[in-house]
Structures are given as structure tokens and as C-alpha cells.
């Protein structure tokens, strides 16, 4: 078996994805074919995030939900049609996935500069990084060269994206299935230092969990009734427009908004790392950036697989 064929075969196996598939991606992939790509993405993201800081979190979440369903292949961006069922209406995405218009804007500008060259999957990967940076978080070099899926899987989106009700064991298992370690999971969960969650995702926690600060629960109940008001928002941490380590400080104080957040600090295997991140923002930033690269390496389509979509919402 030739080395290229071997690499493609290994990339199908999620446990090996992070270590092997990155070899197929390159930070310089578009250096000659679309040299202004990163500037185009950064400028559009700057406009979007300056106008609505929440979009940095929304696009980071889109990238996470893309990568966890058959790899980082842009499948989450595909619209449903009469003959095609995408991932936008899967339970983790319905009424909550947002930021698609920003990706559309960037794709239009990229196509104008270098048509039929840059994948939507790569645009999403770059946009997620830039959103974090624009909110004060770390930067990292994004490996590029992903191609876009021609398919999507609503069932995989329903089953492979961790729920906000997940236990620690479930979180560790679901990240492990994608080739990511428990420490990667704890670092990546720090993405919840920005953005908001809907009442329906944290109602059970604030009314029924016991490992929660009483004053915090009372505050959150004021904006999230025991029934109704599912779409009401609460910030995931108390500095929701700044990418910092307050998420972990909140966990130590039993102020995690989601059940799955507080599971990271609840007498289990991740307590020590959460404590470290809560007092050392630089360590968190470094680990988050490295884990984002590993997540971005999950099962990319490369070479002749997939396509370069002209419109991120539809297959060519």
C-alpha cells in the first residue's frame, strides 16, 4: 500500500485522525492559489464580531459541531432541501446554530478573490480562530487543505455531539471517539468562556442540580422559568464577550451554567486541571490553542475527496 493511500485509510479511523491527518493539511496550502485568504477572513470577522461579539462564540460552536460529525468538512453549513437532509435541524443545532450569514459573506469575498479554490470547511476553521482572537483569546496556525463534504448526517449530529446534560464519563468517551483526550476536552470546554446558552439547555441544572452555588442558581432562575421561555439566554460565564479563564474560576465556585460544564469540576478526574486553568490563564490559552488544532485535524477530506463548494449552503 502506497504511503498516500495508507494516510487516507488511517484518516478514516477517528482515533488516529489527530496524529495522522494533520500531515495532509498545511498552513501554506493557499499561499500561491489564494494569498490574501487570511486577510479577507480576518477583515470580515472583525466587522462581524465588532458589530455583535456573540458571533465569535457562535462560529466557534459551528466549527466544533462541524468537526464532531464526520470530521471538519463543512457539512454543518448545508441547508436542507426537498431532497437533502442536512445537520442544521439536528437537536444540537436547531434554533441555536448561528453565524451562517457571516460564513456566506466571507465565502462571497473569497470567491471574488480566488474562485473555486478555498473550501467552506477551511473558511469555517479560519473564522473560528479569528473569532477567538478578536475576543481576546489566543491565536494558532490553522492547518489548511480541507475539502467540502457532499453529504451530511442529521443522525450523526444527534448522536455524536455532546449534550449539555452529559456526564463526565460521557464527555470523555465522546471526545475519545474523535481522537481527543480528556485534557483536550477540558481545554476545549473553555470555549464556553464566550457566548450564551438557551434556558432549555440549563433549566434542569438551575432547578435540580445540587452542586450549584445557591445565589447563582437564584440569579439564573430569574431569567429562566421552570417552564416556558426556552429561548431565553444567559451568558456561559460572567465575561461572555471576553475570551479568558473565568469559565474555570466559575466552575471552582460551582457556577457552571450547564450540567456538562460543572461535571468538569465535581470530584472527578478533571478537577486538578480545572484548578490549574482557573489560576493560570496562559496555560489555558496555550492548551486551548493546541487542542483546537487537534480538533481541526479530525478526518478531513483531502486530495480528490469531497469538493470545493461554490456556495457553502449547497453542494455543487
Write the layout of secondary structure elements.
Elements: H1 3-11, H2 14-20, H3 37-51, H4 54-67, H5 100-113, H6 120-134, H7 154-160, H8 168-176, H9 182-189, E1 196-198, H10 199-208, H11 214-223, E2 233-235, H12 246-252, H13 259-262, H14 271-279, H15 281-296
Antiparallel strand pairs: 1-2
Helix pairs in contact: 3-5, 3-6, 4-6, 9-15, 10-11, 12-14, 14-15
Summary keywords:
316 residues, Peroxidase, domain 1, Peroxidase, domain 2, 2 domains, 49% helix, globular
Describe the protein's architecture and organization:
Its EC number is 1.11.1.7. It is found in: Secreted. Keywords: Calcium, Disulfide bond, Glycoprotein, Heme, Hydrogen peroxide, Iron, Metal-binding, Oxidoreductase, Peroxidase, Secreted, Signal. It is an enzyme of class 1 (oxidoreductase). With 316 residues, the protein is mainly α. The protein has two domains: 36-160, Peroxidase, domain 1, CATH 1.10.520; 168-295, Peroxidase, domain 2. It has 15 helices and two strands. It has a two-stranded antiparallel ribbon with strand order 1-2. The radius of gyration is 19 Å and the shape is globular. The two termini are 32 Å apart. Mean pLDDT is 94; it is low at 1-23.
Amino acid at each position: 500500500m502506497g504511503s498516500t493511500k495508507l494516510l487516507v485509510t488511517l484518516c478514516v479511523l477517528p482515533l488516529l485522525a489527530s496524529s495522522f491527518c494533520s500531515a495532509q493539511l498545511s498552513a501554506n496550502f493557499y499561499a500561491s492559489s489564494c494569498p490574501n485568504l487570511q486577510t479577507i477572513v480576518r477583515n470580515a470577522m472583525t466587522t462581524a464580531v465588532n458589530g455583535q461579539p456573540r458571533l465569535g462564540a457562535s462560529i466557534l460552536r459551528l466549527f466544533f459541531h462541524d468537526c464532531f460529525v464526520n470530521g471538519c468538512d463543512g457539512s454543518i453549513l448545508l441547508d436542507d432541501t426537498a431532497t437533502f437532509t442536512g445537520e442544521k435541524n439536528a437537536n444540537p443545532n436547531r434554533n441555536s446554530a448561528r453565524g451562517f450569514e457571516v460564513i456566506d459573506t466571507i465565502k462571497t469575498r473569497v470567491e471574488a478573490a480566488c474562485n473555486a479554490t478555498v473550501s467552506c470547511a477551511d473558511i469555517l476553521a479560519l473564522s473560528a480562530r479569528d473569532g477567538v482572537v478578536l475576543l481576546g483569546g489566543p491565536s494558532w496556525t490553522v492547518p489548511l487543505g480541507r475539502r467540502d463534504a457532499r453529504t451530511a448526517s442529521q443522525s450523526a449530529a444527534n448522536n455524536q455531539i455532546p449534550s449539555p446534560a452529559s456526564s463526565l464519563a460521557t464527555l470523555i468517551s465522546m471526545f475519545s471517539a474523535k481522537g481527543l483526550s480528556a485534557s483536550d476536552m477540558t481545554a476545549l470546554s473553555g470555549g464556553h468562556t464566550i457566548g450564551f446558552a438557551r434556558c432549555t439547555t440549563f433549566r434542569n441544572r438551575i432547578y435540580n442540580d445540587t452542586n450549584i452555588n445557591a445565589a447563582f442558581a437564584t440569579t439564573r432562575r430569574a431569567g429562566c422559568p421552570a417552564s416556558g421561555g426556552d429561548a431565553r439566554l444567559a451568558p456561559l460565564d460572567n465575561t461572555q464577550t471576553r475570551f479568558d479563564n473565568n469559565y474555570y474560576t466559575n466552575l471552582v465556585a460551582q457556577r457552571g451554567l450547564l450540567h456538562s460544564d460543572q461535571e468538569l469540576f465535581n470530584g472527578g478526574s478533571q478537577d486538578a486541571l480545572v484548578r490549574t486553568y482557573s489560576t493560570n490563564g496562559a496555560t489555558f490559552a496555550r492548551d486551548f490553542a493546541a487542542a483546537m488544532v487537534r480538533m481541526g485535524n479530525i478526518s478531513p477530506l483531502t486530495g480528490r475527496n469531497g469538493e470545493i463548494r461554490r456556495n457553502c449552503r449547497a453542494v455543487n
